[in-house]
Amino acid sequence: MSDQAATDRATETFVAHRNLLFTVAYEMLGSAADAEDVLQETWLRWVEVDPEQVRDRRAYLVRITTRQALNRLRTMSRRKESYVGPWLPEPLLTAPDVAQDVELAESVSMAVMLVLETLSPTERAVFVLREVFDVGYEEIAAAVEKTPAAVRQIAHRARKHVDARRPREVVSQSETRAVLEKFRLALNGGDLQKLLDVLAPEVVLVGDGGGVKHAALRPVLGSDKVARLMAGGLGKNTIPLTIGHTVVNGAPALVVHLDGELDGIMAARVEDGRITGLYYVRNPEKLSHLASETPLTLR
Hints:
Blueprint: H1 3-29, H2 32-46, H3 57-81, H4 96-100, H5 102-107, H6 110-116, H7 121-132, H8 137-144, H9 148-163, H10 173-189, H11 192-198, E1 199-208, E2 220-221, H12 223-232, E3 241-248, E4 251-258, E5 261-271, E6 274-281, H13 284-287
Parallel strand pairs: 1-6
Antiparallel strand pairs: 1-2, 3-4, 4-5, 5-6
Helix pairs in contact: 1-2, 1-3, 2-3, 3-8, 7-9, 8-9, 10-11, 11-12
């Protein structure tokens, strides 16, 4: 096989698995930009391999991606230590077919992504590969350089940890969108009581400005504090404000523009018809990719 033919074959294989590899990297890192960098590193290593000598190309690519993501995750953990205020995952535009895959949509949701942040790098890799993509223990062991027996123990521990912290139930897209529309209307009108009606008493607001945009330096707890902060902030903004609907991380969300410029993405955790979690990403570095990003799809 000529060099060009080998490169073409490698490219064809890589493109066929690209969405899978990106999703693995994104769920491990919580950053679309870093996930793209991992894919670039994976490609550079893959193009040096003779595909004809690889028995299971998908497994091989997943292994490279996982190892590169683990390396980057350890570097990112040091960056997060000096991050100003709470750290939220980068919002990820997702196509409708992602939302239709209930398990995948839940796994990339802001609420679950934040739970994944509480796992160790190896636990996170094992959980993502096993629970989200049903990768076999032998393949995972090769990717994280552990024995299959150790991987089984890690998977059990990570699953127990995540299950104790993830949302209790999967809420339909239509219900989430309806609750967000009530919240949007209340916010547009600066109506404190209507905000209180749609917020659960135990609601938590997490804002991520990255030290660049104004955001609470700690999570805001309780419906009264959250409602007053939102009504007194966005609800009474003198700059022209528009709040619209979008879909990020496999679920309906809100997109906020101030004076025609993108200000942030607001994702929500909805339970029993009310909002229990609000995640407002305002850090411009985490929003810059949205204008050019192609929504993640399963195809």
